[in-house]
Amino acid sequence: MVDILKTTIREVPDFPKKGILFKDITTLCKDPVSFQRMVDLLGHRYVGSPVDLVVGIEARGFIVGAALAYKLGAGVVLVRKPGKLPHKTYKATYELEYGEDSLEIHQDAIEKGQKVLIVDDLLATGGTAAAVVELVEQLEGEIVECSFLVELDELKGREKLLPHKTFSLIRY
Ligand code: AMP
């Protein structure tokens, strides 16, 4: 099932810059069977786990995260690029596979001790997700796991997320 899902991800060389092989999940998302399968396979892992909130990372993480939260009966928290969230925020800065950026979370998004699943479409160097871990920890949320649709193994992103657990459905 996972192998079939993998074939629906399009690979775009040299996007957004030379040398990056971009894993384009729009081709997976637009296929109803693949999209449902992705949500079901990810959701299956957490059925019975006490997840209060799914934290989705802008922007593709919102798609995976919101669908997963619905499946788990959890709430959704948005982590966004600077200046997008309207209320008081905390910010974390991180390095990307291609550049540097910051992310923000609402200061009241997570209550102390709430069980949080961090979700994004893809784990590359781990800088993005590590910044989100920092934000969740700042709010004293309890991280259940960091969960991804895709992981690029050779970039060793999961090492940046230790001691937290990492799961990815599709690995390259
Ligand atoms: P990183 O911080 O290096 O783990 O990068 C992860 C973030 O960048 C995710 O939000 C991905 O959507 C995006 N990203 C990084 N590399 C790629 C890639 N090769 N293909 C698609 N998205 C990527």
What does this protein look like?
The longest helix is centred in the N-terminal third of the chain and has 15 residues, at 32-46. This protein has a single domain, classed as Rossmann fold. The mean pLDDT is 96. Helix 5 links the parallel strand 7 and strand 8. The chain is globular. Helix 3 packs across helix 4. The two termini are 16 Å apart. It has 6 helices and 9 strands; from the N terminus they run αββααβαββββαβαβ. It has a 5-stranded parallel β-sheet, with helices on both faces. The protein has a two-stranded antiparallel sheet with strand order 1-2. The chain is of the alpha/beta class and 172 residues long. Bound molecules: adenosine monophosphate.
Summary keywords:
single chain; 172 residues; alpha/beta; Rossmann fold; five-stranded parallel sheet; two-stranded antiparallel ribbon; 6 helices; 31% helix; binds adenosine monophosphate
CATH A-level architecture: 3-Layer(aba) Sandwich
Low-confidence stretches: none
Structural class: alpha/beta
Strand tally, please?
A: 9
Helix content: 25-40%
CATH class: Alpha Beta
Strand order of the largest sheet: 4-3-7-8-9
Instruction: List bound small molecules.
Output: adenosine monophosphate
**CATH topology name:** Rossmann fold
Please tell me what the overall shape is: globular
Number of domains: 1
Distance between the termini: 16 Å
> Could you tell me the strand content as a percent range?
25-35%
- What is the succession of H and E elements? HEEHHEHEEEEHEHE
Main sheet record? 5 strands, parallel
